[in-house]
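sry for the spam today, last one i promise. struct tokens for design, 558 residues
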């Protein structure tokens, strides 16, 4: 290994270089349960401007808002902004003196937490946008890496591994594209070998001579995962529950549904420091009385994940604050849910109000939420309006029968795939057998025939008997060669007029007018063999005897 000066590197330089590469790789990793996507554009090939990318961002946000109206995210709304991305490939990483290119692109980051449906809903939006803007190229990763490849792992080509997938997996035109490495020298001009740079990937996708579209089996697996949206995100992923909470808190959740995620997460991830705020309840319950005089029954919309997180946390108010009804009471669930949600709202507000130490991409959203709560003016109405009806939460409790049905369905899918692979393997073996049969038939036809069968020995054929009846000149040519040629041509002309010739199979891949359009001997041989074998109806016959003598496996009925 050499350094930038061309001299051999000592152990300290090699260690520093390895550590630098490790730092570069580690910096590209995402936090746990995070997704990040990049939207590039074809204009990068000719040098795009900041203004044009800003227009693209406005178009993307317009579509994003229209598709996510009323949607509740598990943690926070994705942060979408313009960032400058450096085009780093292996050569530039090894040689620091080579200037690095940079592009302006749209970058979005999502913290989906425990709800993976947020991740796939956002991916569905990205596929939708790629259909509308054909100049766009989108790549997305999460903390596990190329999760789109993980979803389609069963059908991926063998060469595609995590270490060689950088800048090779893209969303474009509503489809998944995978840039394969060059398979022949001519493709080296359009597809660079080895590490693929960002600009090289963009050029390959828009090159009409390069086929980057992923295979149909891979596309089907991705489409199967995305076909549930947007129905799943708007209906199946939501759950409306009846709870007891203060009136003004119910109004807040009705006007700003995304607050529910902040309140539930604050309660779910609470710690002893944040729970100190529950001793006073200064913001949402200053009278410290959680009963019918301070609360109202209202229907609140959760996501299923948020509802499950709140349901499975056992937490009751102190006796001085409120007394929970009996578990058999129909109001028990509404009372406990309301109390836990109220505690989460208080902890969220107080922690953000005092300036929480945690700083991340979603800090601005939380600050805006606190400002909105401070500026909120409750209405003078006595009841909280809401059209949602309480949903059945039986989906939360999985019985053994339902679990068995899921496992059975998955097992049937695996069995069907195994059968398909066996059939493909069997078909391939039969085609190999046909090749062997054709080769053996050639040797069969060249063999000597006698009363005891065909002789397959490799002994040289006695040419004396074959040459009998022909006269040779001094140069080794037939003396009557011209007459023989005329005779063969006349026979060909007569055969051309015969109707029986039309019954023979011709080479289907040859073009009209070529010699290959004449009768294909091998194709007719296989066809006649199969027809004869089928006519035997499983009994012994000439075809099975010939195949048996050649040690060729009999073809299947199919």
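last one done:
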């Amino acid at each position: 290994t050499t350094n930038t000066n061309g001299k051999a590197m000592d152990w300290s330089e090699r260690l520093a270089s390895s550590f630098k590469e490790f730092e570069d790789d580690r910096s590209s990793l995402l936090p746990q349960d995070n997704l990040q996507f990049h939207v590039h554009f074809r204009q990068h090939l000719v040098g795009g401007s900041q203004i044009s990318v800003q227009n693209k961002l406005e178009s993307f946000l317009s579509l994003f808002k229209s598709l996510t109206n009323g949607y509740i995210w598990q943690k926070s709304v994705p942060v979408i902004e313009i960032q400058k991305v450096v085009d780093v490939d292996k050569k530039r990483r090894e040689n620091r003196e080579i200037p690095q290119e940079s592009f302006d692109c749209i970058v979005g980051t999502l913290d989906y937490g425990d709800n993976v449906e947020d991740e796939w809903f956002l991916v569905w939006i990205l596929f939708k946008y790629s259909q509308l803007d054909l100049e766009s190229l989108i790549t997305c990763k999460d903390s596990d890496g190329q999760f789109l490849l993980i979803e389609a792992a069963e059908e991926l080509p063998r060469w595609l591994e995590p270490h060689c997938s950088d800048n090779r997996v893209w969303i474009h035109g509503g489809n998944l594209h995978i840039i394969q490495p060059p398979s022949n020298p001519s493709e080296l001009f359009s597809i660079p070998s080895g590490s693929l740079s960002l600009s090289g990937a963009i050029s390959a996708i828009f090159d009409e001579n390069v086929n980057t579209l992923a295979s149909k089996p891979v596309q089907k697996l991705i489409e199967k995962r995305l076909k549930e949206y947007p129905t799943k995100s708007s209906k199946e992923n939501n759950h409306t529950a009846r709870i007891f909470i203060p009136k003004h808190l119910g109004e807040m959740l009705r006007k700003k549904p995304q607050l529910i995620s902040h309140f539930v997460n604050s309660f779910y991830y609470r710690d002893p420091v944040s729970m100190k705020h529950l001793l006073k309840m200064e913001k949402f319950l200053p009278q410290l009385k959680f009963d019918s005089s301070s609360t109202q029954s209202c229907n609140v919309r959760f996501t299923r994940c948020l509802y499950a997180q709140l349901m499975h946390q056992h937490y009751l108010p102190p006796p001085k604050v409120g007394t929970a009804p009996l578990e058999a009471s129909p109001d028990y669930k509404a009372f406990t849910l309301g109390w836990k949600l109220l505690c989460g709202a208080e902890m969220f507000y107080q922690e953000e109000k005092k300036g929480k130490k945690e700083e991340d991409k979603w800090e601005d959203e939380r600050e805006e939420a606190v400002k909105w709560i401070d500026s909120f003016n409750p209405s003078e109405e006595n009841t909280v309006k809401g059209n949602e009806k309480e949903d059945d939460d039986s989906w939360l409790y999985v019985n053994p029968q339902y679990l068995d049905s899921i496992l059975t369905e998955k097992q049937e899918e695996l069995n069907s795939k195994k059968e398909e692979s066996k059939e493909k393997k069997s078909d391939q073996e039969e085609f190999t057998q046909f090749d062997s049969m054709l080769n053996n038939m050639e040797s069969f036809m060249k063999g000597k025939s006698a009363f005891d069968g065909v002789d397959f020995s490799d002994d040289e054929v006695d040419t004396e008997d074959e040459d009998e009846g022909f006269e040779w000149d001094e140069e080794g040519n037939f003396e009557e060669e011209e007459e023989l040629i005329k005779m063969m041509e006349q026979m060909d002309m007569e055969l051309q007029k015969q109707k029986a010739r039309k019954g023979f199979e011709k080479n289907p891949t040859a073009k009209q007018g070529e010699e290959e359009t004449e009768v294909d001997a091998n194709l007719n041989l296989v066809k006649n063999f199969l027809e004869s074998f089928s006519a035997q109806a499983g009994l012994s016959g000439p075809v099975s005897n010939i195949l048996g003598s050649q040690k060729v496996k009999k073809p299947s009925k199919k």
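The mean pLDDT is 78. ok im logging off now
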